[in-house]
Amino acid sequence: MIVGVPVRKVVRLGHPVLRAPARHLTPKEINAPEVQRLIEEMAASMIEYEGVGIAANQVGEGISLFLMGLHEGSERHKEGIPLTVVFNPEIKFIGKDTELDYEGCLSVPGMRGQVERALKLELSGLDHRGKAFTKLYEDFPARVVQHETDHLNGLVYLDRMKGLKTLSYVD
Ligand code: ZN
Fold first, then answer.
1. Element housing 133 (H / E)
2. Is residue 112 part of a domain?
3. Which residues of 85-96 are buried (b: 16+ CB within 10 A; e: fewer)?
4. Pairing of strands 120-126, 132-138
């Protein structure tokens, strides 16, 4: 937990906010106190629920924003992912290489399934202060970027599965 920052309730599959395309924000809107507070609350929520990423619509806000982060030495990805805040994400795939691996989602708790994702991409967006950036992602972090950007377009990983045969309970 982060002291003094409330954890937001994560909405689950079936809530219409997960199926609606999210609204892009301007740099001025990003710097508004309520949006800066939302970033903190999403960070607190991601940590509380042990997610690697969280999209704003997962806490009921229809704006184009996601966070990701993972501590170093994690089983899921040894190098970890620095805490990253992305508004208005745009993905440009690099190459044609893909990888099939398991994904889970805080909005579909307790389950996981295999999804084919691009291995390498370029992510463009605005940072936590509304400054434009472009960054290269590969492997697991690239998978997280694709999963979270999908959320902001109203998609969940189940939509990306080729079939439901690998859908399973985590425990
Ligand atoms: Zn998700």
1. strand 132-138
2. yes
3. bbbbbebeeeee
4. antiparallel
Ligand 1 centroid distance, CA of 108 (Å): 7
Parent domain of 116: 16-169
Is 148 an active-site residue? yes
Whether residue 4 has pLDDT greater than 90: no
Task: Show Cβ contacts of residue 98 under 8 Å, excluding neighbours closer than 6 positions.
Answer: 116, 117, 118, 119
Catalytic annotation, pick one of 41, 61, 103, 148? 148
Asked if residue 142 belongs to a domain, the reply is yes
Cα–ligand 1 centroid distance for 63 (angstroms): 15
Q: Is residue 5 domain-resident?
A: no
Quick: pLDDT tens for 58-95. Answer: 999 999 999 999 999 888 889 999 999 999 999 999 99
Q: What is the mean pLDDT of the chain?
A: 96
- The pTM assigned to this predicted structure is 0.96
